[in-house]
Write a structure and sequence with these properties.
The chain is α/β, with parallel strands linked by helices and 144 residues long. 28% of the residues lie in helices and 23% in strands. The chain has a single domain, classed as Rossmann fold, CATH 3.40.50. It has a 4-stranded parallel beta sheet with strand order 4-3-5-6, sandwiched between helices.
Length: 144
């Protein structure tokens, strides 16, 4: 599923929810599954949660329905370029798993791309996720 904006232009904050609608973006599964590319910042948020995040992603995106690839950032790479390359390789969903910095890099890589963006807020601030009303307690949502 993806979020698409009705119309165009800017949206006043109080009308934000009314401006968006949920559309089905991913096609029905075939035998090859959907390619999910995750940009994961293992240093974001709580210390020592990286193994839990990896395990949750692996248990949520299960073959053959999903083909999961996780790229762990070091802070030295061009995240936007990595996302563009993943899209060129056929990613059908790109997930930003980290804080606001990770999310900005991933979003920049998806500009002008039909590939939907998933947000797994793992940072300490998660300002954009808060503004979009995305639940911050991912372990409870994923039953971890």
């Amino acid at each position: 599923m993806g979020v698409r904006c009705r119309g165009g232009g800017s949206v006043p904050a109080k009308h934000f929810r009314d401006a968006f609608t949920i559309d089905t973006v991913l096609s029905p599964m075939d035998s090859s599954g959907q390619k999910v590319f995750v940009i994961f910042n293992p240093k974001a948020g709580k210390k020592d949660q990286a193994d839990e995040v990896r395990a949750a992603l692996a248990s949520h995106f299960i073959p053959p329905r999903w083909a999961l690839e996780i790229y762990e950032t070091t802070g030295e790479e061009d995240v936007a370029a990595i996302c563009r390359a993943a899209c060129e390789r056929g990613a059908s969903l790109v997930i930003a798993a980290g804080g606001d910095g990770t999310l900005v890099g991933v979003a920049n890589g998806l500009v002008h791309s039909p590939v939907p963006l998933g947000i797994l807020p793992l940072g300490t601030g998660n300002d954009l996720a808060r503004a979009l009303l995305i639940p911050l307690n991912w372990t409870r949502r994923w039953n971890c």
